[in-house]
Amino acid sequence: MSTLPLESTVRGSKAQLARLPSVDRVLNFPAVLRLVERHGRAFVTGEARAMLSDWRARALAAGTAEDFGEARVAGALATRIASRTAPALRPVFNLTGTVLHTNLGRAPLAEEAIERIAQSARAPANLELDLETGERGERDTLIEGLLCELTGAEAASVVNNNAAAVLLTVAALAAKREVIVSRGELIEIGGAFRMPDVMKSAGAKLIEVGTTNRTHPRDYVEAITRRTALVLKAHTSNYVVRGFTAAVDETELAAIAHRAGVPFAVDLGSGSLVDLAACGLPREPLPQEALAHGADVVTFSGDKLLGGPQAGLIVGSRASLAKIRKHPLKRALRVSKLTLAALEATLALYREPERLAERLPTLRLLVRPQSEIAALAKRLAPALARAVGERFVVEDGTVQSQIGSGSLPEEVLPSWGVFIRCRDGDKGSGRRLQGLAASLRALPTPVLGRIADGALILDPRTLTDETGFVAQLPKLGLGSA
Ligand SMILES: *Cc1c(COP(=O)(O)O)cnc(C)c1O
User: Fold this and answer.
1) How much is the average pLDDT of 11-17?
2) Which of 240, 241, 301 should be mutated for ligand 1, with most atoms under 8 A from CB?
3) Do 157 and 144 form a contact (C-beta atoms < 8 A)?
4) pLDDT digits (tens, 9 = 90+) for 392-421
5) Ligand 1 center to residue 302 CA distance, Å?
6) Which of 162, 300, 313, 339 to mutate to test the pocket of ligand 1 (most atoms within 8 A of CB)?
7) CA torsion sign, 130 to 133 to 134 to 137?
């Protein structure tokens, strides 16, 4: 119980408050004048006022002596302003081991794509202008040629992401009518994208056929009626149905749909424009194969295995794409010139598949040799050991990276990581590792790892700026260095 008499607390805090400088005085401190020069008088005044008001409230409540000297006030204001003006969207070090991490922005772009974004951001561009006729153009035509060339499609379109591509396809081809999907393919991706919900949002009625593990040709044949507008096959990207299973392949399903005069669409999810098996990676279905198997529409993401910007790519028959382009949702889901610039540059790299692993960061990181990652981890371990201090043990060893974004969920890539464990046993070790993870996230360039099996694991497969990573480690403030 407190024994401090109320009287003296109030008197103490009043004396305190008398020493708190006014906003005007603070604004004339030389260090604060420099802040004003950089950030403007109005902003700095507002921040100074808010900070002093917080301090006044705290002094009243606590009644303890605080340093209100010029150096402390100016320093605290500078720190406050630095944190208020730091960009909300910042680069981070992804050492989670997941290469295409949705929460961390998925694919890092190729330099060619980055340059083209900067170029088109700086100046006007022929986004919707036909330079030959001088008439209004269609932004899809900018990448349609390349997409058709690479996939063998007759026509192509681009929207904001693949979820939008599926939504638009269903809305344009099947609104107020029925879409047939196998029960084994009623996917949910990242929580908010559920096939049944997408159907509802697009105004179509979902007709489920087959069972979770087995769907047969007759299931589709029997479900097709006069109300059927579309047969849809969705790639089960983030899970695998194994054991006693059966699915109808694309060629057969295309034939069933076409016999009934109904279009057939495939949502590939990731899709990859080249056979990844050629680079020693697990195989992912290609849009060009789905089209060759008879699909009228194929949708896939721009920022998964393709390694480009966030986008939803729609390729297929001229007739289907004409309907898709005409739908009002197309306008609502369209992409910016920045996306188109990056996408065109990324797609162009696919014209030279033999150089792809060298020029496309996503592929380069996916095929990065384990020996190279191990050498990197071994160089990082001593620097990390110094930075985290005596209370942790740091070792390196094998780990498994993941492709991420629901691509090839069962496939892992052999990698090498740094394991940080608590030195003194298990007691409270979970909480201490969480604390360490929080400190790593608080660094100027936040570092993201993962906690598993009693260790904080940092997988440097995707680390490209080793110098920058090591340079900021002493700021962790835990170790001896
Ligand atoms: C990832 C994925 C989507 C959603 O794609 P976004 O580009 O993230 O919108 C849709 N369908 C499948 C099968 C997917 O794997």
Assistant:
1) 69
2) 301
3) yes
4) 999 999 999 999 876 666 778 999 999 999
5) 10
6) 162
7) negative
